[in-house]
Specification:
Blueprint (H helix, E strand, L loop, with lengths): L2 H14 L1 E8 L13 E6 L8 H8 L11 E4 L2 E2 L6 H8 L7 E6 L14 H20 L3 H4 L3 H13 L2 H8 L11 E2 L4 H9 L13 E2 L2 H8 L6 E6 L1 H11 L5 H15 L3 E6 L7 E5 L11 H8 L9 E4 L12
Length: 333
């Protein structure tokens, strides 16, 4: 399978992705006995939790206390931000992915001091459009194409996200002219390769040999979170010692002997440092997860962006770090 076909397959996987949810009504909102059974829902990865209201309200309506419905969710006591895609919340909060994902739903007591107000689908829609504007500004330096969308295109784009229709989304979003990310390269040309080609008499009519290293997912994560990539500095004491021994074996005259003695004194006062990745260079990085996938860090970053980003044109990277285990306290004997 070529790279383009792999990209199409990845996009299809992302658009069809869903998370099984087991949703319990918070006990403070249960007014009947027995308690209602949890609702079992298959939630689209690219969807948003408040959009599940049409499925959940009929299931729990008979037990709710009087009041105005304002849906919100929590996971292990943590109120969940409704404007973050469901798949991103799951990837971020479940390092050990639980299935089904057990959530608690509320219809009363909205925590306005923690969560921004949400007035149903309209709030989610405009949050999506605003994120799309931000992405357009980052890519193009302005968001005119998003702001100038026709009403019909805007409705069709939003419905394609609601219904998980990738073909419709790609057709409408192409009008926004948000170009794909191209490959970027880092590093310097491989001088050994250039030398070998010269020695064999090969001619290169296509310009200089390109042996730069492609900018990878590892490079991107390292640029954002350099503290997770530990490097250690090695003090190499053998190199100056060997050099000095070789120099001291070949004095040609008194002047050269004097110069060698001066060099010895100078080099003995220096440490030659060799900065190289340690054997445990990524021990702080446990895993990277995007759209439920744990990709290899060597994958080109451009491929990741173009094929695993969400419809609002943001790439959500969930990074898990290793936490050092606390040493157990000694027991009294």
């Amino acid at each position: 399978m070529d790279v383009e076909a792999m990209g199409r397959e990845a996009q299809k996987y992302v658009w069809e992705g869903a998370i099984p949810l087991q949703i319990h009504l918070h006990e403070s909102e249960v007014t009947t006995l027995p308690h209602p059974s949890p609702a079992l829902v298959l939630a689209p990865r690219m969807g948003y939790l408040p959009l599940l209201l049409p499925l959940l309200k009929p299931h729990f309506s008979s037990t709710l206390p009087p009041g105005v419905d304002t849906i919100w969710f929590e996971y292990k006591g943590l109120p969940l931000k409704w404007h973050i895609p469901t798949g991103v919340l799951f990837d971020l909060l479940c390092a050990e992915q639980e299935r089904p994902w057990n959530l608690t739903v509320h219809f009363r007591g909205y925590p306005g001091n923690i969560l921004t107000p949400c007035e149903g689908e309209d709030s989610v829609k405009w949050s999506f459009i605003n994120s799309l504007k931000e992405a357009a500004y980052i890519v193009n330096g302005n968001c005119k194409n998003v702001m100038n969308m026709s009403q019909s295109d805007q409705v069709e784009l939003w419905h394609s996200v609601l219904n998980g229709n990738m073909e419709t989304y790609q057709r409408v979003s192409s009008k926004l002219k948000l170009e794909k990310v191209g490959d970027q390269y880092v590093g310097k040309p491989n001088s050994n390769l250039l030398k070998s080609r010269t020695n064999t008499g090969e001619t290169d009519t296509g310009g200089p040999v390109k042996t730069d290293k492609c900018f990878t997912l590892r490079d991107a994560v390292k640029a954002l979170l350099p503290e997770l990539f530990v490097e250690k500095t090695l003090i190499d004491e053998e190199i100056p010692r060997i050099e000095l021994e070789e120099e001291s074996r070949a004095p040609s005259d008194d002047e050269s002997n004097t110069r060698n003695e001066e060099d010895v004194e100078e080099k003995q006062g220096e440490n030659v440092e060799c900065c190289c990745p340690s054997d445990d260079a990524e021990t702080k990085l446990k895993l990277v997860r995007i759209q439920g996938i744990e990709p290899k860090l060597e994958i080109p970053f451009s491929w990741v962006v173009n094929n695993l980003m969400n419809p609002e044109h943001f790439l959500h990277i969930c990074v898990f770090v290793k936490v050092p285990q606390a040493k157990p306290l000694p027991h009294d004997r």
